[in-house]
Design a protein that fits this description.
The protein is built from 2 helices and no strands. The protein is an all-alpha fold. The chain has one domain (5-43).
Length: 45
Amino acid sequence: MKVTKRDVRVFLLGTLAFFIFESIYNWKENKSDFLKGWNDASNNR
């Protein structure tokens, strides 16, 4: 089985679409988790 450029593009586009959809769907949770991680990293310096 040969993997073509088209296969790679479709896979990457699907992964990107899933990431965007998931980020929009769970925006509040993603935002709070991001800010918690950001603040934890800032406090560990």
